[in-house]
Design goal:
The complex is a heterodimer of chains A (117) and B (118). Chain A has 117 residues and is mainly β. In chain A, 0% of the residues lie in helices and 51% in strands. Chain A has no helices and 12 strands. In chain A, the strands form 3 sheets. In chain A, strands 2, 5, 6, 10, 11 and 12 form a 6-stranded mixed beta sheet that branches. The chains are: A mainly beta (117), B mainly beta (118).
């Protein structure tokens, strides 16, 4: 079974600075997807960024980028130029890609990010 | 873009009441929907996978008779918490994916339901 681990329960960053959130996962599969979701106090789940395992190039979305290390099974999220609106709980998630899979997401424990003005 | 509508957003009811939560995909067909439960400051825990036209698949430890799931159409799944008790109080979130769009389609989440049992 696949597992996702986020070892940082809480992180803080100064506004305009850069912060990196860690995520590791365990799987025996070779083809899968990895995601970072943001959950602000409103508790709405917002997709931040997605990585396909067969792509070596790290995904980027504006101020958000990932460092995907497939061999190490590591998938960290870097937030550049942090803004107050980035304050939220961030979840790393895994999804199998193989045929017949249900598409369910497996979430890490979450990291609460505080942005200091 | 794709939207998932979840209702109600907040429910407060007495112990022993059964509560139904609806999850609708508004502009796509979802053969599979997912139901999660989330306690404060914790992660989302998958409760069950809802399959259109067939029985739901429950995760280990989730009581099937307690959490009834019905997925009668390609756009609607319901979760009924039967004879709810205070320990069932939690935040419940549904999600769905447009399978017709291919395997790389992301999941879309509803806004969640905060259930409080007195």
């Amino acid at each position: 079974a696949q597992t996702v681990t986020q070892s940082q329960p809480e992180m803080s960053v100064q506004e305009a600075e850069t912060v990196t959130l860690s995520c590791t996962y365990d799987t025996s599969e070779s083809d899968y997807y990895l995601f970072w979701y943001k959950q602000p106090p409103s508790r709405q789940m917002i997709l931040v960024i997605r990585q396909e395992a067969y792509k070596q190039q790290n995904a980027t979305e504006n101020r958000f980028s990932v460092n995907f290390q497939k061999a190490a099974k590591s998938f960290s999220l870097k937030i550049s130029d942090s803004q107050l609106g980035d304050a939220a709980m961030y979840f790393c998630a895994y999804r199998s890609r193989g045929s017949g899979n249900t598409g369910k997401l497996i979430f890490g424990q979450g990291t609460t990010l505080q942005v200091k003005p | 873009g794709a939207v998932v509508s979840q209702h109600p957003s907040r429910v407060i009811c007495k112990s022993g009441t059964s509560v139904k939560i609806e999850c609708r995909s508004l502009d796509f067909q979802a053969t599979t929907m997912f139901w999660y439960r989330q306690f404060p400051k914790q992660s989302l825990m998958l409760m069950a996978t809802s399959n259109e036209g067939s029985k739901a698949t429950y995760e280990q430890g989730v009581e099937k008779d307690k959490f009834l799931i019905n997925h009668a159409s390609l756009t609607l799944s319901t979760l009924t918490v039967t004879s709810a008790h205070p320990e069932d109080s939690s935040f419940y979130i549904c999600s769905a994916r447009d399978f017709q769009g291919g395997s790389n389609q992301p999941q879309h989440f509803g806004d969640g339901t905060r259930l409080s049992i007195l």
